[in-house]
Design brief:
With about 500 residues, the protein is α/β, with parallel strands linked by helices.
């Protein structure tokens, strides 16, 4: 039998449906792969092999009974530990939520279980999704399965969805959920040589997802290729009356609509993304992508997104401001950690609990957010940032009057070594420079592998589309995927 862990969503689902192998055999193979890799990669906070087998047994029983199977039937996946999972610990990778076991299921995870998927476990991440390298988790760093050929330094898998990217790239999960606030699906996908899509804001419900920045957070799919991402996103998306920001729109049949023919399409290349001192390997991969889309029939159009240079500072005002408000609920009163020193009052308990439960990066962002929302600085910072956000969104609106999609790099570099940038928060924040603008505008965007840099590490290309046009993003990404012919995978060292 084919090594089942080398197969993606489509191949696994179709193989189970045809009877080439059982869902139980698939779950068993991936459970074993997770167990073998977990000590080295630390991709999971909690593993749930029994849940994967339980879901697989149901799929096998349904198939034997002749019942219709779901679009993810027999596919065990990793669930980012921001999604509430009934009866399974959900921590957001923070000590303040250690031991919290929800009595409810997030809408996104429930949709995936309803489609026949199973759960391999809860994936590690940057604490409360705050980070670009997966070094802020209270449960230890996630290690990328990739290594530079020249050394054995452990590399960052990207963040915040680093557990998701590491698991998919290492072939210990065929797919995983991610969340993207400023690039947390796309950047880790680029770092590990996989595909990842952030849909239009509101496509996937945020109900039951631990909040970072409510006007930016969006769930999405991470998988081996574009087709698998389309299948998974279809299962995840849809209107949810429990989420006031959820889009009341039907879910398109993105998988059936996949088409790599770009004839008649215009692709925008924003001049502002050609940064001074850009990594030559990143610049080359971008030029390669332009040539590939031309080959697919697209017309290349130079465009301007003039407010791009303000996107990063705008994001790092708005996101921490929303985080400082969202994280106020973690106070030791109702759930999670409670630190109650002897003789302490309520305020003392709040202070002690939050000091012990939140990590340094979370504290930094809460403090920044509280500062920009304070009475003396609200108008100077937060109000101004919201105005600039409107200008950034308007830039995209005007650009999409000329073009169908936009092509840019996903990240300014390939993966860096753990510890290489953690001493300088500003340098770490610069990892989001190419991904933040689409998040501020609420647009769909996808990263696909584009090749390897001179260090032998993956680079990603990012396709940004109009609001609600995930199909256009997926189709352009498929055209890139077919021409990039990216088959590299990390050499197994774990």
């Amino acid at each position: 039998m084919t090594d089942l862990t080398n197969l993606g969503i489509a191949a696994l689902r179709d193989g189970v449906a045809k009877g080439d192998f059982t869902a139980t055999e698939v779950a068993t193979a991936f459970n074993a792969a997770v167990e073998a890799a977990q000590p080295a990669l630390n991709a999971f906070i909690v593993t749930t092999p029994d849940k994967a087998l339980e879901s697989a047994a149901k799929v096998d029983a349904d198939r034997a009974a002749g019942k219709a199977l779901g679009t993810m039937a027999g596919v065990p996946i990793g669930m980012k530990d921001l999604f509430a999972t009934k009866g399974t610990q959900t921590t957001a990778a923070s000590k303040i939520l250690e031991g919290f076991t929800p009595q409810y299921e997030s809408t996104v995870s429930q949709k995936l279980w309803d489609a026949g998927a199973g759960m391999l476990g809860k994936l590690n991440l940057d604490q409360f999704a705050m980070g670009s390298s997966n070094e802020t988790s209270a449960f230890g760093n996630v290690i990328s399965p990739w290594r530079r050929p020249s050394d054995t330094a452990p590399l960052a898998p990207g963040g915040s969805s680093g557990g998701s990217s590491s698991a998919v790239a290492a072939r210990i999960a065929p797919a995983a959920t991610g969340t993207d606030t400023g690039g947390s699906i796309r950047q880790p996908a680029a770092f590990t040589g996989i595909s990842g899509i952030k849909p239009t804001y509101g496509r996937c419900s945020r109900w039951g997802v631990v909040a970072f920045a409510s006007s930016l957070d969006q769930a999405g799919a991470m998988a081996r290729d574009v087709t698998d991402c389309a299948i998974m996103l279809e299962a995840m998306a849809g209107f949810d009356p429990k989420d006031s920001t959820s889009l009341n729109l039907p879910v398109p049949e993105w998988t059936a609509g996949l088409n790599a023919d770009m004839k008649g399409k215009k692709v925008g290349i924003p001049r502002e993304y050609r940064l001074d001192g850009m990594d030559p390997d990143v610049a080359k991969s971008w030029d390669d992508g332009i040539a590939w889309l031309k080959d697919a029939g697209a017309e290349i159009v130079e465009i301007s997104l003039p407010h791009t240079k303000y996107a990063l500072p705008t994001y790092y005002i708005i996101a921490p401001a929303e985080a400082s408000s969202n994280l106020a609920r973690y106070d030791g009163v109702r759930y999670g950690l409670r630190d109650l020193p002897d003789g302490a009052g309520l305020q003392d308990m709040y202070a002690a609990t939050r000091a012990a439960g939140f990590g340094p990066e979370v504290k930094r962002r809460i403090m920044i957010g509280t500062y920009v929302l304070s009475a003396g600085f609200y108008d100077a910072y937060y109000t101004q940032a919201q105005k600039v956000r409107t200008l950034i969104a308007r830039d995209f609106t005007e650009a999409f009057q000329q073009v169908d999609v936009i092509l840019v790099p996903t990240a300014p570099s390939s993966a860096f070594a753990l510890g290489e940038k953690s001493a300088d928060p500003l340098e770490m924040y610069l990892n989001d420079v190419f991904s933040v603008p689409a998040s501020l505008a609420g647009l769909p965007a996808m990263s696909v592998p584009a090749g390897l840099d001179r260090s032998g590490l993956p680079l990603g290309l990012q396709v940004i589309g109009k609001a609600f046009d995930e199909q256009g993003v997926l189709n352009a990404s498929l055209a890139l995927e077919q021409r990039a012919q990216f088959t590299a995978r990390p050499a197994k060292w774990w």
